[in-house]
């Protein structure tokens, strides 16, 4: 939960209740991280059901974006509107290789963005891995990364451990990587073959140069989901929703409060 930017959550929460949670096996939640996004979706649905909420607007970022696709496909009546941010759908059966729409201008270190995130252990390594994977590698990007890092440390609750004290790199992170590996192999029960089943309004968001999950995958989803809306943020990568926290919140609130895409989806 602590990696969600308070600037984004507070801007969203000024108009509606916002619920965030730690997935099973992550942070303050007990249990074990499921190794499929269908498993993540089942946990999410069970959580909402336990709260007694009949219908929700669902916002998933990165791996969470894959999980919310499966949640909406598994329990479509539960989800009124769906927001998929900085994510991708599963792969097709012919294993098409997708590449970024814009070439990343810097040399990629041998570890790569995903491994850097998965192996970072110290606060300094975590801060670096997020800046490296989520933000542009220039003065604008580095300033945005530092601003985000400072904001997420504003939240302090007496008696609660700090975010990095909750991370078990030998368990949760490895299982998260295994989950994404499952998503990257064709499975007819995953989302690729089923995106047309999503009849609720869908908003897809990303930066224009996401080096962690190529921005082209967001365009792909928007094309495959009937009536989906796509918003791309300039000079931004995977961390666009932190770089443009207030703007993203405004776009999300416009989407949630309007009915234009409900009407379009019904026609399609």
Describe this structure in words.
The chain has 268 residues and is of the alpha/beta class. The protein has one domain: Alpha/Beta hydrolase fold, catalytic domain (Rossmann fold, 3-Layer(aba) Sandwich). Helix content is 43%, strand content 9%. The chain contains eleven helices and four strands; from the N terminus they run ααβαβααααβαβααα. The chain has a four-stranded parallel β-sheet, with helices on both faces. Helix 2 packs across helix 3 and helix 4 runs antiparallel to helix 5. The longest helix has 15 residues. The chain starts with 5 loop residues before the first helix and ends with a helix. The relative contact order is 0.18. About 5% of the residues have low confidence.
Question: Which terms summarize this structure?
Answer:
268 residues, alpha/beta, Rossmann fold, 11 helices
Low-confidence blocks of residues: 97-110
User: Any idea of the CATH class?
Assistant: Alpha Beta
Question: Could you name the CATH topology?
Answer: Rossmann fold
The SSE string, one letter per element, is: HHEHEHHHHEHEHHH
> Can you summarize the main beta sheet?
4 strands, parallel
Tell me the strand percentage band: 5-15%
- Mean pLDDT across the residues is 85
Which structural class matches the secondary elements? alpha/beta
Helicity, as a percent range: 40-55%
From the spread of the alpha carbons, the general shape counts as: globular
Query: What's the total helix number?
Result: 11
